[in-house]
User: What shape does this take?
Amino acid sequence: ETGVTQTPRHLVMGMTNKKSLKCEQHLGHNAMYWYKQSAKKPLELMFVYNFKEQTENNSVPSRFSPECPNSSHLFLHLHTLQPEDSALYLCASSQGTGKNTEAFFGQGTRLTVV
Amino acid sequence: QKEVEQDPGPLSVPEGAIVSLNCTYSNSAFQYFMWYRQYSRKGPELLMYTYSSGNKEDGRFTAQVDKSSKYISLFIRDSQPSDSATYLCAYKTALTGANNLFFGTGTRLTVIP
Assistant: This one.
């Protein structure tokens, strides 16, 4: 177990649905991240939160809405997604956001948009 | 030009073989180099981390960095079926404050018993 838990593991949703992905870390870290992993593409950083404050948004469409109520929990709210949004969504956490910090990843949520 | 180029494979080798995985990068600002291993249906886990040119060894794994050629390699000696996974190279600049990693696409490795 990595210490970073994501639910659900798999999600199928229609383009008009609203759903949320949940991430919880048990490592006492201060920073949390959402990454998108598509087939044959590099991992893409989506959002960064440090001490509950969003510090980075990599030009992510507004149909993805993150929420970080505390340093241990991170959500990704989804609405009116497109089929090309189908991917593995990975949550990660780290002790801080400095250059030497290691990111610990969850197992991901496999999202399919139909 | 992509920031990071990595051959996606797939790569199949017999058990006991030496595996060589490679990445090239274009950004001279990259200062920190990492290899992540990702098993099927799992998230990536950090395998090796280095910030200098040369070799870094950890058990059967050796990471090699050549900053002048902008080239990094991961060697796996005496490969085992349990090494079957996707290997991702990743880079980070010295300038960024955020944990902003630039990843390769990953090379899928299968070690055949």
About this structure: The first strand of chain B starts at residue 4 and ends at 6. Chain B touches chain A through 27 residues (CB under 8 Å).
